[in-house]
Amino acid sequence: MTRPFNFSAGPATLPQEVLQQAAAEMLDWRGCGMGVMEMSHRGKEFISIAEQAEADLRSLLAIPANFKVLFMQGGAIAENAILPMNLSRGGRADYVVTGSWSQKSAKEARKYCDVHVAASNEADQHTRLPSPSSWQLSDNAAYVHVCSNETIHGVEMHTLPDLAALGSTAPLVIDCSSHILSRPIDWSRVSVAYGGAQKNIGPSGLTLVIVRDDLLGQALPITPSAFNYQTVADNGSMYNTPPTYAWYIAGLVFQWILRQTEPTPEGPVTGLAAMEARAIRRAGMLYDYIDNSGFYVNKVAREGRSRMNIPFFLLDESRNDAFLTGAKAEGLLQLKGHKSVGGMRASLYNAMPVAGVEALIAYMKHFAATHG
Ligand SMILES: *Cc1c(COP(=O)(O)O)cnc(C)c1O
């Protein structure tokens, strides 16, 4: 079956093979007589699904043994509150604002701790990353929070800050919702990584929190038990019933990533390296075309351009509706930009084939040629 290419920012396209496998297993998971949605989370079948998924994620991201992987709910927006409840001890936390998502995180955290905005690119309309050397970090922050890929503004940190080199001893927390599993995470710099699943992992409803174990056990007393990282960790993410089906699909996606290979000039690479090589290739193709088109423009400073979310504008914005209608007719879906930014946005997550970007560029060329 050939399906349209879906450029949604999230919930987003999933690998077709994964959807087909899930469909085949829908009524009866591997001969046990039950579908995954229908099984107890404490039964041996689901425990095996859950354990395999965690093991595969640990292997893909090379997660060190002293980090816990929590399969939670509520999305990254709930984490905006859950994180300060768990980590701030009611004191100060530093936030770096680089776009809508980190701004939202800082705003919510103010309910639970003393938020210090250490840097902001708001004056640049969130189009360039403030250099870490310019960040005004506190001496006593419980943590420093960044959004490592701003899904709406299309700004990505290609290097995570080395807080120790900046004179801070605070743990670094990253909201990596929209680029997790598209590149490695440097765990020598990161103490907590969290993200909703619906961009690069699986269905909405699942939130991953990967947290260094020495940061557990300091939650504010008001923290709901189901959101206390220590409680969740002690119960293997089964203090409350986890989002079992989303966990299962995430596991199928991890297996799919492990099977992927991608050619590079140095030879073929597999797994996470394949995801990164493919992301570089996809994004490179689209940015190159946009920059040289004379018809479309991306406003993000080059060094901060996201590989995953590429906002772009038609120079003549009166053509926007025609562009979107024509795209849909060509099987290119969900290209409308976020309402706060306008224009268009192509999200190129792991499950987007290179052929999807080729089809998008071919359409953009044709549209420019016929509307120029
Ligand atoms: C999508 C997104 C969120 C919000 O996720 P929810 O699941 O709606 O809570 C937060 N941060 C980033 C970076 C995102 O891409």
Tell me what the structure shows.
- By secondary structure, the protein is an alpha/beta fold.
- It has two domains: 17-256, 3-Layer(aba) Sandwich (Aspartate Aminotransferase, domain 2); 264-371, Aspartate Aminotransferase, domain 1, CATH 3.90.1150.
- Helices cover 33% and strands 17% of the residues.
- It contains nine helices and 16 strands.
- The chain has helices at residues 16-25, 44-61, 75-87, 100-109, 229-234, 244-259, 271-293, 320-329, 354-371, and strands at residues 5-6, 67-72, 92-97, 114-120, 144-147, 149-150, 155-156, 172-175, 192-196, 207-212, 261-262, 269-270, 296-297, 309-314, 332-333, 344-347.
- The strands form five sheets. A seven-stranded mixed beta sheet has the order 2-10-9-8-5-3-4. Strands 13-14-16 form a three-stranded antiparallel beta sheet, with helices on one face. The protein has a two-stranded parallel ribbon with strand order 1-15.
- The radius of gyration is 21 Å and the shape is globular.
- The two termini are 35 Å apart.
Question: Would you summarize the structure shown here?
Answer:
With 372 residues, this protein is an alpha/beta fold. The chain has nine helices and 16 strands.
